[in-house]
């Protein structure tokens, strides 16, 4: 069963109901499922997650509910740290893990696991990776790094390299084509052509990966992608636009596989506080033969 979502407004006659009762009554979920949705963060009251099952709500309050009966247990894993100093934390995100909370849960994501692993830290998120994509994510852990890191990610001078595996070889090329959400697409996706909502400029450079770069990996056709902008699904959309979708990226026409073959590989930037050159790398371990 797929993710289910509801939005409703509390009626006057509902104001005496506990929140778990209200959710069950207005969605058709069982009380047990309603409490599970609350526990996982799948209930929002006036756009804020609410977990208190006994809360009473005033008439006119907006409630949003999301419930995914197929969610696995909350994961327990150590997130590998690639780099850390007083201002920054870089980690290697496992594939299959959302970067931050989803509609149905704020306990199944990378940020939640990092908070459990390092409760002493307050992390500031400046970029994201798709759920199926593995690799480097860089956080600020001190507010002093926020302005410089935001500027770095907005700059085309930052080096952001990804490794992708395709079904067929692709020569070196640059795609400079706007990306926007495709109106009415179900499931939701993005594109370079068609009826696009709020298209924004996007540029990606592609080149074949060298033998040295792919040594020890599952044999295949690999490309290195360099992002000059940071649009949602940018590499996936630009490769699909070229007619060379990523292996395993069935949303964009890629051949089926047991994984999405996309990995955030390297980051190069000026340190936002010290100004030193910073070169980070997360080897694509899950691509190894």
UniProtKB/TrEMBL annotation:
Residues 17-80 form the RNA-binding S4 domain. CDD domains: PseudoU_synth_RluA_like, S4. The keyword RNA-binding applies. It comes from the Bacteria. Pfam families: PseudoU_synth_2, S4. SUPFAM superfamilies: Alpha-L RNA-binding motif, Pseudouridine synthase. The keyword Manganese does not apply. Keywords: Isomerase, RNA-binding. Belongs to the pseudouridine synthase RluA family. PANTHER family: MITOCHONDRIAL RNA PSEUDOURIDINE SYNTHASE, RNA PSEUDOURIDYLATE SYNTHASE DOMAIN-CONTAINING PROTEIN 1. This is RNA-binding S4 domain-containing protein. It comes from Geothrix rubra. The lineage of its organism: Bacteria, Pseudomonadati, Acidobacteriota, Holophagae, Holophagales.
